[in-house]
Amino acid sequence: MIDGGKSAGSFPASDSTGCPEAFGVFRRIAPVLVVLSTFATVCSAESETPEWRIFLEWLRDEQQELTTNLKSVRESLEQRAQLEGGDALERLRPKPPEPRPSGYGILPTIVENEAIEPVPLTAQHYSLEGLAREYTAVFRDASLLLRKTKAGSPPLLQSTDELLSLERHAVRLDEHLGYHETWQQAVMDYPGFFAGRNRLHSQMLEHLDLLDQAAVARNEERHEQGAALEAQAAERRRNVSDAVAPFVTTPGLRVEDGVLAVPIHTDIEDESFLAAFIEAVETSLRRPTVREVEAPSEAGSVFHSGSQSNSDLESVSVTIPTVEGVPPLKVEVELHRVKTRDLYAEAELPYHGDSINTKAHVEKFIQRFGPSTLVLSTGAHRTVAEIGRSIILGPENRSPRSLAHEFCHLLGFADAYLRAFEGDPNDPAGCTLVEWTGLQNNIMGSPSRGTWTVAMEQTVATHYGQGPKRSGHND
Questions:
Q1: Which residue of 61, 247, 331, 390 is most buried, as measured by CB atoms within 10 A?
Q2: Please, are residues 265 and 376 in contact by the beta-carbon 8 Å criterion?
Q3: Is the bond leading into 12 cis (omega within 30 degrees of zero)?
Q4: 220 vs 383: CA distance, rounded Å
Q5: Quick check: 253 and 468 in contact, CB under 8 A?
């Protein structure tokens, strides 16, 4: 359904925030949590604002203070480094990237792809409360560093290294807050969807428990019982893999003469970004050769670009090499340009950086161009895609392969990773979000490290009118 874009850590499951559990770190924040909980309860009785959002806004305020403190420290250290010289001045250049705001017209920065490699089965946990526990120490250290800098002359290199570490934490905090703003809300907006996801999460926990039981049986030389438990564990995992990413046919798409044309309406005006989006699709949606299923070959791709007779239409064709005598399937992306004024009345026009209701924004396209319209636009806190409907971009960094992953949602592919939750979304700090990756080893199972596969191409050909009928999962 949707892409959250957080990177997962190592298995077994753990809190991704890496939060210190020591009481000494937590005690500073504990009174604040109590106050927030009480305040949230009062406010929730008077409005529909969820309690977790009050918690998140408090963290946003703390983040702003953190950013302000670090800017002051940097200015002071840069002045000292200019006078004293040495390595500190070089370490302070260039300045770190500041957290990017979200809003209408704000585009992600495109970064390099990660290396293609198999994706291990991984579970990761994300919680606002855990984030707050971890960052209590960061907020404290930034405040203390500012005080020390104002009070005297702490060692320059030591202070510089501490500043750079805190600045990295600040950027990461912004990413986590954007993640929670998207997915805590999604849990509340789509209760039926996440109830199903939680059932699959329970099956994955059963999968791990069965593997543990099998390991005990093997260690005790009960090999037959161990093999039976391993088979049950494998069945649980297959069931989840089959259920987590069913293919849904997108209305209006059809393979004709070996070509799947995918028309997308977009109000994005940045020519360089649109060209990069097209290139991302062209590079990533290439059929792997028989010997290179894990890593697509660079040979055999033909890239054609140009404009149709209509000036608002651009096209790019992706030719996929022939495998085992099967003719290549060409995916043709058509970008139909839309002006914001064609969607909104003058008084309602959103401007660059404005916060918008992304659901209502997509609906503007539907009302204007029809129910089968595919949409590429901006305005999300984090990039979010709806199968067979839309890609709404956020400000976070995106690799070409992850953009192609979002494009695959328009074709009808679902995320082949599992996002569920533990706890109660109505708690003061919301729920704990849980992500499982490595269920399938393709671009839908891992947007950063997976690839477009032969099975995915065959699924497209089958569902949109070309190729032999296939049964079962798409990969």
A1: 390
A2: yes
A3: yes
A4: 49
A5: no
CA distance 350 to 356: 7
**pLDDT range class, residue 332, cuts 50, 70, 90:** confident
Report the alpha-carbon distance of residue 241 to residue 439 in Å, rounded.
6
pLDDT in tens, 416-450: 889 999 999 999 999 999 999 888 889 998 888 88
166 three-class SS: helix
State the DSSP H helix or E strand holding residue 315, giving kind and residue range, or none if neither.
strand 313-319
Strand partners, 92: none
b/e code 351-370 from CB counts within 10 Å (16+ = b): eeeeebebeebbebbeeebe
Residue 173 Cα to chain centre, angstroms: 15
Of 116, 115, 110, 117, nearest in space to 400 by CA: 110
Q: Which residue has the tokens 């939750």?
A: 421
pTM for the model stands at 0.64
213-227 per-position pLDDT tens digit: 999 999 999 999 999
- Contact yes or no for 240/418 (Cβ under 8 A): yes
Q: Which amino acid is at 176?
A: H
Identity (one letter) of the amino acid at 50?
Answer: P
CB 446 within 8 A of CB 119: yes
> In a 10 Å sphere around its CB, with 0-12 CB exposed, 13-18 middle and 19+ buried, how is residue 317 labelled?
middle
Q: Which one-letter DSSP state was computed for residue 323?
A: B
